[in-house]
Design goal:
Strand order of the largest sheet: 1-8-3-6-9
Number of domains: 2
Shape: globular
Order of helices and strands: EEEEEEEEHHEHHHHHHHHHH
Number of helices: 12
Radius of gyration: 19 Å
CATH architecture of the largest domain: Sandwich
Number of strands: 9
CATH superfamily of the largest domain: Regulatory protein AraC
């Protein structure tokens, strides 16, 4: 069976999950796409990956996380035995808890076996279950793999204190379902109305029917970041999605993403991606593979 389906660019238009292994080439050029990737690093003395502006020298058993829309490459690594998981951004956005976990770990791109042995052991067991299911002839393999992906994210979330020592389980307020429901409604509203006149924290707190101070606290605890940083991240996600459309000007991309000016758009984009929107667009993986 040919398992080498890595970089199947249109898989997420038909499926929520893909897995691949078995490529002989040791490198893959800098690129980005709308789906996320989790890579279980293979054997060998040299395994070098890059995500955004970071370069990582890894060992067998480490994990690489490249979230949707992030620039990444394989500089020099074993791709024949590495396991590559690809998951649709639409799937992640279908559940608030998955969005929350992804947002909290947005800046986490490496999970090292030497630093987090227990966590890596748990995650590796899940990944090999995915492999067994995905490369089988089960009729419900996609559903099962998505369930295992959710288990992967749940386990990762259960270890969040390892990556944010300043947060403890005691610091997480047991928010009522009603409050969480309001927060979900607000975040959904923002994502669907990025060009609205007022998306300030005060206005969103008022929409949720809670005080600005309480909104600020629960938002930080649930998403792992303050409101302004989260809003810029959502705008950047929208901008990167729009950049895939070559017919749309950079000004249109900025305005439709909710940025009030081109300089503001360029500054926030460069701070996050390390390059201009135009440079980023030129590396869109769909255009590179035509």
């Amino acid at each position: 069976m040919d398992f080498s389906r890595y970089e199947k660019y249109d898989f997420d238009t038909r499926s929520a999950f893909n897995m691949a292994t078995g490529y002989k080439e040791r490198s893959y050029k800098n690129h980005w796409h709308s789906y996320g990737e989790i890579i279980l690093v293979g054997p060998g003395e040299t395994n070098i990956y890059s995500v955004n502006q970071g370069t990582y020298h890894l060992v067998e058993g480490d994990f690489i996380l490249a979230w949707p829309m992030e620039m990444h490459s394989i500089v020099d690594a074993d791709r024949e035995n590495a396991l590559i998981i690809q998951f649709s951004n639409a799937f992640v956005n279908s559940l608030f808890d998955l969005q929350r976990i992804m947002h909290f770990y947005r800046n986490l791109h490496v999970i090292c076996i030497n630093s987090h042995p227990d966590l890596v052991k748990e995650l590796t067991v899940i990944v090999y279950k995915m492999k067994d299911v995905f490369f089988s002839n089960q009729s419900n393999r996609e559903l099962t793999c998505c369930m295992l992906l959710m288990e992967f994210m749940k386990v990762l979330d259960e270890h969040r204190e390892e990556f944010a020592p300043e947060m403890s389980s005691d610091s997480r307020d047991p928010y009522e379902d009603d409050v969480m429901h309001r927060l979900v409604l607000v975040t959904d509203y923002i994502k669907n109305n990025l060009t609205a006149d007022d998306l300030s924290q005060g206005a969103m707190a008022q929409m949720a029917g809670i005080s600005r101070e309480y909104f600020s606290r629960i938002f930080k605890n649930v998403t792992g970041m303050n409101y302004t940083k989260w809003l810029n991240m959502i705008r950047l996600e929208k901008a990167t999605e729009l950049l895939a459309n070559e017919k749309m000007s950079l000004t249109e991309v900025a305005m439709l993403s909710g940025f009030q000016s081109i300089p503001s758009f360029n500054r926030v984009f460069h701070e996050d991606k390390g390059m201009s929107p135009g440079e980023y667009r030129s590396l869109f993986v769909g255009n590179m593979e035509k």
